[in-house]
User: What shape does this take?
Amino acid sequence: MKIIKIIYVLVFLLSISGCKRYNLEENPANNELIPQKTKINKQDAQKILNLKVNLTSLSEPGKFNIAIPDNYNSGITVYEQGNIGLEFGKINFINRKDVIGIELASALLPSERLCEQNVYVIKEENPNLVSMPEIKKQLVKENNIYYEDANSIIYGENFTVIHYEYDTAAKSYIFYTGEIDHFAKFPEKENMALHMLKNGKNLLKKDFSKIPFNSWEEYVLNSPHAEINVFKSIFTKLNKEMKAFLGPNQSVSPRSEGNYGYVTFYRSNDTMDFAYLNFLNAVKTNTLEKFELPEKISNRFEEVFLDLRYSTSNKYSYSQIDNVAAIKITDPENSDRVHEILICNVQHDQKSFYLITNEVSDLTRDFYIKMFNYYSKNKTLDIPSLKK
Assistant: This one.
């Protein structure tokens, strides 16, 4: 019995030591591994903070000049004194005039609300009014601090991210705040929080160049896991439809967990394939005025491929990127509004399918092209090398 008790004690002690998380902190004495209350190791965090991101400038002369991801939407609000109740260090927003608030959101998932991201700009001559110890004392009530450095912190149940910097050129404080939506149900929230922190740390970056992403693999490696997984879950549903359920001339638009649709998947037939190829050729050769759809399929063709009333009065342009057709439709009767759709043919088991974007913009176009081409070749969005 004594031997059994000793074993239990040893197991208990090992389990306690195994539950500790360690982080290599800068220690002028010995730089040793010491127990921390943080969950995110700084070396692992740095890998995400160093990931590739293409930036674009967002500015208003005399007010602010920041850098945001080039596939982000932004909305700017100027708050009058007393209309925003935030406080960082010795800066109380309530007492400040003309606080500039900038709401940021990924153009890929504008409605999913995986997280909320905001930037605040406050004019101030004194660069010594804010410190991270002050912010922690004011805001961090919980004990769960996941990450912190001299200007940043990630904490709390919703993985709240705070980062601040002083812009000496504009004599302004730049505050970044991010928070994962408390309704968001996805794993690896630390990964999402670090990608948000990366956005905060890039705000005052000036010397940047855009290097296009060369592949779907690059998008997967450099994007938040939660964003990629939204699309993976949708395309997993497409696989089931393609292999078992979707009949000829039928289409589906699987919904995300947030109940939004991003793509339409259509199973074609020989007549529709022939009409589609003839349509592309007419656009390419600028002979659309001579092109006529067979009457028995015209309504379905417009519904599936154009999502607009078919009209030769519209102006069409077409380009082919690998297996994706990019069709731009300009409507002269609607202030020359330009509507673009991406169409990708997918062949499986001697059946013809088409992937079609529900909505695409200049901010999301390349992402969809890379994703569609990868799926058409591999019938999955998974990257085998990442599973090892």
